[in-house]
Amino acid sequence: MSINDCRRLTTGLILLATLLSASTLPAAPNPNGGQWPSIKYEKYKLKNGLEVILSEDHRLPLVAVNLWYHVGPMYEKPGRTGFAHLFEHMMFQGSKNVGAKAHFRYLEAAGASDINGTTDFDRTNYFETLPSNQLELALWLESDRMGFLLETLDGPKLANQRDVVRNERRQSVENAPYQLPEEVMTQTLYPAPHPYHGVVIGSHADIEAAKLDDVREFFRQYYTPNNASIAIVGDFDSAKAKQMVEKYFGPIPSGPPVPPVEVKTQPITQEKRLTVTDEVELPRVYMLWLAPAYFAPGDADADMVAHALGGGKSSRLYKKLVYEQQIAQDVDAVRYGLKLGSMLYIQATCKPGVAPEQVEKSIDEELNAFRNHGPTRQEVEQARNSIQSAMVFRLQKMGGVANLLNLYNQFLGDPGKLDWDLERYDAVTAESMKKFAATTLTDNSRILMDVAQGKKTIDDPPQNKQPEKASTVASLDIQGQEWRKTPPSPGPVSAFSLPVPKQLTLGNGLTVLLTEQHNLPIVAAKVVVLGGNGDNPPENRGLAGFTARMLAEGSKGRSALNIADEMAQLGAKLESDSDPDSSQVSTEVLKRNVGADFDVLSDVVLHPAFDNKDIERIRSQRATELLQTSDDPYALSRRVSQRILYGDHPYGYLPLGTEASIKNTTKADLEKYWSTDYVPANSALVIAGDLTEAEAKSLAEKYFGSWKNTGKRSSVPEVSLSPARSIYLVDKPGAAQTTLRAVTLGTQRSNPDFAALEVANNALGGLFDSRINMNLREKNGYTYGANSYFNYRRGTGPFYIVTSVRTDTTSDALREMFKEIEGMQTSPLSASELSLSKEAAARSLAARFETMPNTVATTSDLFIYSLPVDFYNKLPGKVDAVTAADVERVSKQYFVPGKMFIVAIGDKQKIESGLQELNMGSVQLTNFDGTLAKAGAPAGSAK
Questions:
Q1: pLDDT at 14
Q2: How far apart are CA 252 and CA 226, in angstroms?
């Protein structure tokens, strides 16, 4: 949720004068003598009470529109839990002048990204980032549903969205590991009748009980201009934006005053212990406390204490439980800021064979030490630096800035509280953190919950088959608005061109790609090495992934903990990973620390230690990660589908490999793979951010110029397969939904038909307004969402259609899905569908360069897939040239129902007979690793 996402949007001492030397964010004076970032903005209020916040940023031709309604579950009535979230869905169903289900269609056709709405306990927000010449379109859409939604709300729409929300609950809560226990934990922290007790998504019973009159009453009371604020950030002219805001929102009448919520969150005075069962492979321990309200005194201490205890690899609990004792697979501590009292929780997943009591004891030992002695000076600095750097990193997204302005506005009454926020973190000391832990994180004031392996408890009553009949309702009294029926025309198209990276080659053969972005003092970089799990030898399927993982676990001069501490002190990020085609080590850092950051980055790539103790620790973690894939239906369906599609080809295995390969990998294997593949000729250093070409070249030469490993560029994996049509059923008894994945061979990323394929996929399942999603979600209410995509690779990658559906609709959903696949060949795209799919593909490309890490990822593809450096610069023109005939041609080649197989993860007893009746091939019971179950034996969790 957005407030949770924003909990780390704070800054501190690291942002000195050099922070803003090249920034578009002006500096504000700090009484402590430094300079702090400040977002230049203007706030004013319309006569109807709508608060308007404007902030110009002309670095990209994008504009973010972010509208907050100051209502969430905090305002819900008893028996109506989840109502605020349900209404969020109703806001996308079409207003008077926009039309039914057209909101996403207009925005996707305009090239918008980040289109959505979210509900949190204290607010509901709606947002979109789109090309700046389409600002008026966003204001038309948002104002029309604020002023003209009421008369379009009817029974069928409500019934449809009740189904969608209940499917969302099944997918995100009941069919996801640990989510039901977390719901119980939150309800215990905020006992009824506290408004947070119902949690955001609510219960099935309350969602099903929502009536049309409830929806209309909720709209009249809360969805009014006097209970809302809109933030607009990006490439626009403020004077013109003000005229547009007045035009679209000014005529909407103010609503009734919002009654205050008179709730006092009751303290916990005695420890409460719970044990909740869930269908998970590993137990988990939770500890939960009430914490000061968001931005109240002590809130910053809570945030920094949480980070010091469990905020990453440099934290106390990670060092003890994961690194030293190796009794936990993961550990985290989080402060979640809320208006009526925040929560602070610690969670730790037990390693196989480790009892929760052992993990709890170790956590308590660290808590007691923290209460008694407080944090070290280093822990204070690392927490502050990590929190503040995260704040600056998130300022890269215009939508993130817009949301931050609204956040401060709602909770503090002033969008410009960034400086104040900085200062409250500056004021946190070791002593204040110790005091907070000693007085707030006590045994008697906590909830302690163990999640044990067992049966899920799900209350899922049947749906109401009789939707309410539509009835007339008076619209708001807004006169003379006939002009709203015509969508606004876009403004002049920006002359902006997508960036072309500068390329150079070092003397040792290392490719360097640089995209300069000087709006913020941030640098992101990635060392990309060709050869991921698609390059693994048959005897060691996870070797590339294991090797990549080891790089951040120790160099010859730095231990794993040294690396974690050093990066935390810099406020930097460092991650290493592998995918089917490449291995990467990536980083993000403030420019002032880029030299120290590159020193660590180059050290882990060029001088890995492959220490035996670290190998055994990571071996255990990877084996546990493989085990946990069976908990998540989406991860499991991906694992099974890859194995069935590719068989024993390297692409058929996860980067984790297999149970056997994890067990058998040796130090010699890792060293051999590193020395063979990690060579300059097979690698690229990709950089984006606040560096000139001279600075980037100097850094590359200094830190990577000595890389002398010899070798050549990895070859492209060859794929030649003909998948047979069949249904592979993985039995998950009691599953809340059926997860479906239709699979076939796709194509290579270098395919010259790439533009046509993207347009075709957009129409089929790549957009919200695509054929499959509109059928399965909006027409039939089978799912929370369905999508399709090409998983492009150097070799031939897969094509997927993925969804999770209500169990009793499994066969119907598949039937409708394949009807839409066939329709791509028998029912060519209409002119409007073609236009929508093309505009969405071409006009949204600028968003790929909105942040430095996004730019690095986008640019890395040029090296991995041997694309020209101006590929993205020329891509919009190629998309614009796609014709309906092109889409029909590639659809007939790649969307072939007879060549698709299906993976179904669900309750065999409830879905098998329906699957057999589809006549889509034999139904074969399949193990968790993608192998077929033996005849007469139940499907097992073979690894």
A1: 27
A2: 10
